[in-house]
Design brief:
Number of domains: 2
Mean pLDDT: 97
CATH topology of the largest domain: Rossmann fold
Structural class: alpha/beta
CATH class of the largest domain: Alpha Beta
Low-confidence stretches: none
Bound molecules: nicotinamide-adenine-dinucleotide, 2'deoxy-thymidine-5'-diphospho-alpha-D-glucose
């Protein structure tokens, strides 16, 4: 009997990496292929514990490379595709939007074509709540699956465009797809350009933490392990063509997040420095996950338990993030942030 073959794109990154490890360990009877271009955001050192397992395979390739994708799909005849690969950082999309179109839009469309060609059983597209735009500060409003798409940043515009292509391939060609739209993730292997790992890594070095604007913008935080169980459920039980929102009702202002980390690490709040606001900075995101909960999903982490586990992980895995923040990252950081004393 042939094994089920699952292609996970972007599996050297943060969420894709956690999902690869989750799938390799949970489904020894599946062949898990991790496809990644290994951009600045991808690294394979995170997979040391699974890299020798029989059901784990790595392919270095760019999803926008049509020839490479068609050859690979024809050779492996994947059953399931779970598509994470993307340029994922809003600030970088403000600096250089073009790469976001090439990877997030064209790359996704290439994968859809290759999936159509071989007739996959399921294509799960990992999208984001940012495609809905922003909410105001009224705590009773949430994004549902019916909220109109209204992206504000080049990043979210590229993700919304890719969502529309996924939808169109279902409507036009009958490709069995799902789209998931998740809120902000945090947890192990989160690249230190994003708020939570940036704060942890800088506070541990007694360096200033840059907070955009007044720090009152709100994000809805979900531990990456809970995101993995949600995607697993959608992959196996999601209704073809459907969208599922994923979130755990953990709304916090950025200032609350940063202060929680500083206080947990026993450092001074004077490390906080308010810096020039992000252009087009979305005020608030908040997910209504009722549809996914009806399918049987429940998050297991509160923000309190999740952030404690995450801080612990960064303390135990300094060698992973220290080699990142000491390299090319420094050039990006200097370009992105201006501190008072610079
Ligand atoms: P990440 O930046 O940590 O990882 C992205 C991965 O994709 C990297 O390993 C990178 O090398 C790879 N990649 C980039 N361009 C590629 C290309 N052209 N071909 C092949 N591989 C390429 O991203 P993440 O935070 O793990 O996000 C993963 C997905 O989840 C993205 O699609 C993102 O939009 C979505 N998402 C992220 C969050 C979040 O909070 N991080 C929340 C909701 C949705
Ligand atoms: O909502 C889901 C999205 O969450 C994903 O689609 C994106 O891929 C992911 O990067 C994340 O986007 P955000 O822009 O919300 O995440 P980020 O960590 O960059 O910022 C979180 C909040 O913190 C946001 O309001 C901006 C603020 N911030 C961020 C950084 C990096 C700061 O105040 N200072 C900073 O230095």
């Amino acid at each position: 009997m042939t094994q089920i073959k699952v292609l996970i794109t972007g599996g050297a990154g943060f969420i894709g990496g956690n999902f690869v490890q989750y799938m390799v360990n949970k489904y020894p009877m599946y062949d898990i292929f991790n496809l990644d271009a290994l951009t600045y955001a991808g690294d394979l050192t995170k997979h040391r514990e699974i890299e020798n397992k029989k059901n784990y395979h790595f392919v270095k390739a760019n999803i926008a490379d049509r020839k490479a994708m068609f050859e690979l799909f024809e050779k492996e005849k994947f059953d399931y595709i779970v598509h994470f690969a993307a340029e994922s950082h809003v600030d970088r999309s403000i600096i250089d939007p073009g790469i976001f179109v090439r990877t997030n839009v064209i790359g996704t469309q290439v994968l859809l074509d290759a999936s159509k060609q071989i007739g996959v059983s399921k294509f799960v597209h990992i999208s984001t709540d940012e495609v809905y735009g922003e909410l105001d500060f009224n705590p009773t409003t949430f994004f549902t699956e019916d909220t109109p798409l209204n992206p504000n940043s080049p990043y979210s515009a590229s993700k919304a465009s890719s969502d529309l292509f996924v939808r169109a391939y279902h409507e036009t060609f009958g490709l069995p797809v799902n789209i998931t739209r998740c809120s902000n993730n945090y947890g192990p292997f989160h690249f230190p350009e994003k708020l939570i790992p940036l704060t942890i890594s800088r506070v541990l070095k007694d360096e200033k933490v840059p907070v955009y604007g007044d720090g009152k913008n709100i994000r809805d935080w979900l531990h990456v392990f809970d995101h993995c169980t949600a995607i697993d459920l959608v992959l196996h039980k999601g209704d073809n063509g459907d969208v599922y929102n994923i979130g755990g009702h953990n709304e916090l202002t950025n200032l609350e997040v940063v202060k929680t980390i500083i206080n947990t690490l026993g450092k001074s709040e004077e490390l906080i420095e308010f810096v020039v606001d992000r252009l087009g900075h979305d005020k608030r995101y908040a997910i209504d996950p009722a549809k996914l909960e009806k399918l049987g999903w429940k998050p297991t982490y509160t923000f309190e338990t999740g952030i404690a586990q995450t801080i612990e992980w960064y303390l135990d895995n300094k060698c992973w993030w220290e080699q990142i923040v000491s390299g090319e990252y420094q050039n990006y950081f200097k370009k992105q942030y201006k501190f008072e004393k610079d």
